[in-house]
Amino acid sequence: MQFDAELLLLAMAPVFLACIGWEAWHLRRTCPGEPIYSWRDTFCNAALALMQQAADKLAWLAIIPVYAFFYEHYRVYTWQASWVSFVVLFVAQDLLYYVFHRCSHRVRWLWAAHVVHHSSERLNFSTAFRQSLMYPIAGMWLFWIPLAVLGFAPKQIVAIVLINLGFQFFVHTQAIGKLGWLEYVFNTPSIHRVHHARNDRYIDRNYAGVLVIWDRLFGSYVDENPHDVPVYGIVEPLHTYNPLKATFHEWASMAADFASVRGWRNKWRALFAPPAWAADYHARRAAGSASLTADLSASTSEQSSVNANHTAAFQTTRRP
After folding, report:
1. What residue segments make up the domains of the chain, in order of their start?
2. Where is the segment annotated Disordered (predicted)?
3. What is the pLDDT of residues 268-297, one digit of tens each?
4. How many Cβ atoms from other residues are within 10 Å of residue 32's Cβ?
5. DSSP three-state, residue 232
6. In whole angstroms, what is the distance from residue 310 CA to residue 180 CA?
7. What global pTM score does this model have?
8. What is the DSSP string of 137-164?
9. Alpha helix segments (H runs only) across the chain
10. 3-state DSSP call for residue 211?
11. What are the C-alpha distances in Å from 16 to residues 175, 194, 216?
């Protein structure tokens, strides 16, 4: 089966915009006291989407030849265009997306790009557009190289990545409740609301792209609890609608931490430890701990039992 995924997503653009309009109208009527949409947040999301799309267009020019190299020299099989090859490609890429997504919450270098998507304190369809132009620098494209080795051509890889991301637009909403048996197989709005929440029980859970079976298989699934309403945003809040600050704030923080800590082990941690290491370091620095640097190594071992971007100093605010 062959088709142009970019044209498909372009054709879907009016559907995406219509969903945003419907959701804003619907939630204004049904949840008048909830600030689920704001103009500034929505315009920031739109600006981030345009920046990310422009960066991706340039990045694919450099990345596609890399996929072509692995496809030409290292592929283990050659797939003929069919529904069978499409299903294999779809499932394989969705598993690799799960790996990428989970790593993005466990490795600060990757989190520096992914944090953009989580930095809004609102969750709505426009949040799906909130993406980072720094994904190519962070190395998202590296996770799709195994698809070329499996025998899928570069254009097929690009297409399936776009289809996966296009599906995920529809799970960024508070207007749709639980969807019954579908939640045992597919990512849904309820499942993804958990992923965007910073509540203790939810933080760094539900990494699904399209299929939630990976979360259930690898122990990262948590159900949405009606008694613990999701609170959105990140542990160290952004407090800005500037798309440039949203894009680069974590990179700047990471560079500052790298420069300020002593010892190459700590410098390595400033770049590649779980984001919880940085949150703990910032909390200690703010508290003015005299033994800050000496404590870094010890605190890193403690983070193994802490979720990736959570610190004990943080307490989420529960809505009534």
Report:
1. 5-218, 249-305
2. 298-320
3. 999 999 999 999 999 888 887 645 555 555
4. 7
5. strand
6. 30
7. 0.89
8. HHTGGGGGHHHHHHT--HHHHHHHHHHH
9. 5-30, 39-74, 83-104, 108-118, 135-138, 145-150, 154-168, 189-196, 213-218, 243-260, 264-272, 275-287, 292-302
10. strand
11. 15, 22, 29
